[in-house]
Amino acid sequence: MMGKRRVNIAVSGLNAVDSPGPGIPVIRALRESAYFDVRIIGLSYEALEPGIYMHDLVDKTYQIPLPAAGAEHLLNRLRYIHDAERLDVIIPNFDAELFHFIRLADVLRREMNIQTFLPGMEQFEARQKVNLVAYGQEHGLRVPKSRAINRESEIASLSQEFSYPVMVKGKFYDAYVAYTPAQVQGWFHKLSARWGLPVIVQEFITGQEVNVTAIGDGRGNMIGAVPMRKQYVTEKGKAWSGISIDDPHLLAMARDVFTRTQWRGALELEVLRSGDDYYLIEINPRFPAWVYLAVGCGQNHPEALVRLALGEEVAPFETYDVGKLFVRYSFDMIVELEEFMKISTQGEL
Amino acid sequence: MMKLKKNIAWSDTGFVFDPSTGDSFTVNPIGLDMIRLLKEGNSREAICEKILEDYEADAMQVERDYDDFINLLYKLKLTEDDGKAQG
Fold this sequence. Notes:
The complex is a heterodimer.
Chain A lengths: L4 E8 L10 H9 L4 E9 L15 E4 L7 H15 L3 E3 L3 H18 L8 H6 L5 H8 L6 E4 L8 H4 L4 E4 L5 E4 L2 H15 L3 E5 L4 E10 L4 E12 L5 E6 L3 H14 L2 E11 L2 E8 L7 H5 L4 H9 L15 E3 L9 H10 L3
Parallel strand pairs in A: 1-2, 1-4, 2-3
Antiparallel strand pairs in A: 5-8, 6-7, 6-8, 9-10, 9-12, 10-11, 11-14, 12-13
Helix pairs in contact in A: 2-3
Chain B lengths: L8 E2 L4 E4 L4 E4 L2 H11 L4 H11 L4 H17 L12
């Protein structure tokens, strides 16, 4: 029997916090791969991202520059990391960093033979929250009415288009319910300070939150998809537990997105089910933090993504287990001061 | 005849799970018996007869409870689309 292929994979999103990044579940999935023997290189932004200190999962971590520093700084840092680690694949897991990684994908491949498996810039932009209504119209998906707000003065006129309450959403992350224009104003300042402009105001729809984690091969094929219903939601709206469900409509929605857009790589559909109606709330262009549930249900999406990135043919998953739950938990690690000092001052650990 | 959704799952402890929505419920032992008997394709009459054999109750009460239970299953969308509220 052939041994597993040795692969060096860089993964970001090590912030396994109350609003968790997908890095740790992606790494767990890769560690369980039947095809690969992985060395995991963590890419972090802050010294207190828990994954930095999870040495059983992450072999070595390097800080990388924040997206605001620009693509050139990121490329230079990746060159440095590649010199030391000989990276084969990078899996970026933050919405905010994807823009640069998509731009750099060709350079990374040509110059360093590092593979990624990301959507094209056009696909990435089309599903941005500000463009979601147009995206829904183009692809026949029901999307709540939305408006992008760039100035505080626009808030007063919202009541002509929307009835309260409304959802107020950051460009990349975070969403809050606002019952009055004053509350919209408060969230507008908080969200624009954190994630920049525009801030998105969206029609408030009540219903059951159901999400799909899925992966496409870039040629219109859906390689895998697992739908999940949130069972327990934190104050930040994050699923702290969820259960895999058998919902053919959700799977058809996901398949349709891949067929119509030729989406390449991972995505998460966030959907509200209201009676028999399904509203697309967001398309996240990456694995969700709950992607390990897909692994638990028999579909190892991160492993499939690495195989696709390395040019392998991957047959679509045909089944998954229904009625499996994930239950998240928090856990205190004890970390030596030396480690914290090292990542803080030298940018690697 | 009222039919339960094909994929409804349940345990001997009375936990009922609808895989298409992720909804879960608990039922008491009589409810569990009714679900089992429905799943086996029994008619209203056959189910009520069996319940009367196993539990001390009068026939009218069992029939009323059966109808209430079926209505509840219907409201909770645990029945096939073509199923009727009344068994």
